[in-house]
UniProtKB/TrEMBL annotation:
Species of the source: Favolaschia claudopus
Family: Belongs to the UPF0587 family.
UniProt name for this protein: DUF866-domain-containing protein
Record keyword Coiled coil present: no
InterPro entries in the cross-refs: CXXC_Zn-binding_euk (IPR008584)
Length: 161
């Protein structure tokens, strides 16, 4: 098993605490550790959806993602580490900050497509929960703080946790 840390970075304009909504579907690119093939399409994982699987005869294993490689047919799986949770992104100046940890067996994730809705917080406490980063950029206006708000330059990085 390997623990992989997903970090993100973004330019935050007058907002902080950027994080996916609770019911977020994570779209990752997956790479098989047996044949080193990277699957061309992103796969989706949900932190609240677990499936059971059997691992070499032992029952009762659960994972958020169970996958059979199209090339070598090897089965692998991944599970979000609940204890780590999801960390809001607060780093300034576009530095990478940790988001979450995934425990991987037989596979690795190599990319993260930010589809789905995110939320963040304005300078005077306003909550924006319709932050769509799929186009790479989100802009709005914070009435309470009387400031333009935005998220841009989104990036992601996988490293060993
Ligand atoms: Zn494979």
């Amino acid at each position: 098993m390997v623990r992989l840390l997903l970090s993100i970075k973004a330019e935050l304009e007058n907002v902080t605490d950027l994080q996916p909504l609770d019911d977020f579907e994570y779209f990752f690119k997956v790479k098989c550790n047996s044949c080193h093939e990277t699957h061309p399409k992103s796969v989706s994982l949900n932190r609240h959806v677990l499936s059971s699987y059997e691992l070499s005869g032992s029952r009762g294993n659960t994972a958020n993602f169970v996958w059979r490689c199209g090339e070598c047919k090897r089965e692998s799986s991944a599970k979000f580490e609940d204890a780590y949770g999801v960390k809001p992104y607060v780093a300034e100046n576009g530095q990478f900050g940790p988001l979450l940890v995934v425990e991987c067996r037989g596979l690795e994730f190599v990319d993260f497509e930010p589809r789905g809705m995110w939320k963040c917080k304005g300078m005077k406490g306003s909550i924006f929960s319709d932050v769509d980063l799929e186009s790479g950029e989100w802009n709005d206006y914070d009435e309470k703080a009387a400031l333009p708000v935005g998220v841009s330059e989104f990036g992601n990085q996988w490293t060993r946790a």
